[in-house]
Write a structure and sequence with these properties.
This protein is mainly beta. It has one domain: Porin. 4% of the residues lie in helices and 61% in strands. The chain has an 18-stranded antiparallel β-barrel. The longest helix has 12 residues. The chain starts with a helix and ends with a strand.
Length: 489
């Protein structure tokens, strides 16, 4: 109950938030969007796609009513053993609803039941999760003033095969307020602030194992340059935050308040794209630069570890993760019939130790990602005789990346909430190496198809992906999903 007070404290006293931990800021390679480009698509240069700002919806198509239902499934098996399911993730949006007065205000509600399982730790762990969210946003007709309030949360009870215990897992992925302004037809600026929080408690009559982790507060700023039809676009964002970790465990029948961890986070990213037109072709070179760092510091515990205060700093007991990413790429488009993209990014990651670990030297490592994709608009091919109100496409995408299994890894968000059903389950966090994983290569090939029908009243899309992970143990994966939505202008 003590840590429950922490979560209540966050809800009451902390205004709003950025969605993720600073170390998982959306750098190309962390999340690969099923054949879509990440920074070489001119249409994604807005605050919604770039930094997940709810105000960015005003820059996209506006409908009076938008009702969406989609499904997603990801599964992983040991290579050569299709009956050896290791991890699975399924999620439904049922539904995701937006009600709006176009270009003035909108209300968004969504509910997403999710099931996560992980059998890679010796026994199967299962987490049925209820995700939900609410967004309220509005702006003056000119866009000179914009305001949005957003909340995203989850709740679930984790179980383990052969174990009667459960873990209560609940949290806030985003509790945020955002203010923005289109100060010029080419320039939009915004700022946001808030908090994230996660509470995890083992339900066992004897063993005590519970923790709180969160970022309180997080402050962010962004600026966009460009508009539809203008040959150059650019986006920049900056976020700073303070993260905390508070942990209580059972040792020899006694509840022990472990040393709290507090630190600072910094993340910024910039991307720019140009457009060169010649006859019916458009060529768009693009560049991406991003940086993030997380600093962790140990402190002595307080009397109860029941709030966010900390004791005396343990001098020298600190460490820092950082990453610098550079990306180059380009896309090409022929009318509305065909478009293709290619992207390459290189990340330089580092781990630096404090004076409390004199025998350890810092670590550095470079990682790379390459991706290509093409899309063809079938309705633009006259021989196929599609109705004018139909727009259809097929898509192919491929990526190949070498990554750190613990830092900004592929699909880390999907399985990151699972926790072992034991005491001292988070003791590894007190080693600076806890976040430095093994090298691994992930390869994916995606096929997709979809379209807009009846002048965009109905939208539908589906995809299937074939995945491979090469590490100490090789795995094969499959991703499948579909999305159907109804729009009323």
């Amino acid at each position: 109950m003590q840590l429950l007070r922490i979560l209540v404290f966050c809800l009451i006293f902390d205004v709003p938030a950025f969605t993720q931990s600073m170390s998982s800021i959306d750098i190309p390679g962390q999340k690969i969007s099923l054949g879509f480009p990440s920074f070489t698509d001119r249409d994604q240069y807005n605050s919604y796609d770039f930094c997940n700002s709810p105000l960015g919806i005003f820059e996209k198509d506006s409908f009076r009513v938008h009702v969406d239902c989609d499904f997603r499934s990801d599964t992983w098996h040991e290579a050569g053993k299709n009956d050896s399911l290791q991890k699975s993730y399924t999620a439904w949006n049922v539904p995701d609803i937006i009600l709006s007065k176009p270009n003035i205000a909108y209300l968004r509600l969504y509910y997403t039941p999710t099931n996560i399982s992980d059998a890679s730790r010796g026994r199967k762990l299962s987490l049925p999760l209820q995700r939900f969210g609410l967004t309220l946003a509005g702006q003056a007709p000119s866009g000179i003033f914009q305001l949005a309030l957003q909340g995203k949360g989850y709740y679930g009870d984790e179980t383990a095969q052969g174990n009667p215990d459960t873990r209560l897992i609940m949290g806030l992925e985003d509790l945020s307020a955002t203010i923005g302004s289109r100060i010029h037809e080419l320039v939009t600026i915004g700022m946001e602030g808030g908090a994230t929080a996660k509470l995890d408690t083992l339900r066992d009559p004897i063993i005590n194992d519970r923790y709180f982790a969160g970022e309180i507060p997080v402050l962010g700023w962004y600026i966009e340059f460009g508009k539809k039809g203008f040959p150059i676009a650019s986006d920049f964002s900056l976020h700073i935050g303070t993260h905390r970790f508070v942990y209580v465990v059972d040792e020899n029948g006694n509840s022990i308040n472990k040393d709290p961890i507090r630190g600072d986070s910094l993340a910024w990213k910039w991307q720019g794209i140009g457009e060169i037109r010649q006859n019916d072709f458009a060529y768009s070179p693009a560049l991406f630069i991003g940086y993030w760092s997380d600093h962790y510091q140990l402190y002595q515990p307080t009397a109860s570890n029941s709030d966010l205060s900390v004791g005396q700093e343990l001098v020298g007991s600190d460490w820092k993760f950082s990453d610098m990413t550079l990306g180059v790429g380009a896309s090409i488009r022929y009318k509305n019939i065909f478009k293709a993209h290619g992207e390459y990014t290189h990340s330089s990651m580092a781990l630096d130790y404090g004076a409390a670990w004199p025998a350890l030297s810092g670590k550095t490592r470079g990682y790379d990602r390459f991706s290509v994709g093409t899309e063809t608009g079938l309705n633009e091919i006259p021989e196929l005789h599609f109705p004018k109100s139909f727009e259809t496409f097929v898509r192919i995408g491929y990526f190949n990346q070498r990554e750190n299994s613990a830092l900004c890894a592929f699909q880390a968000d999907e399985f990151g909430l699972i926790n072992d059903m034991i005491a001292n389950s988070l003791n590894y966090r007190y080693s600076p190496d806890f976040g430095w994983g093994q090298d691994q290569r992930v390869i994916g090939f995606f096929l997709g198809a979809g379209g807009d029908f009846f002048s965009r009243m109905i939208e539908a899309e589906t995809h299937i992906g074939f995945l491979s992970q090469q590490s100490e143990n090789n795995f094969h994966g499959m991703a499948f999903g579909f999305d159907v939505s109804y729009n009323l202008r």
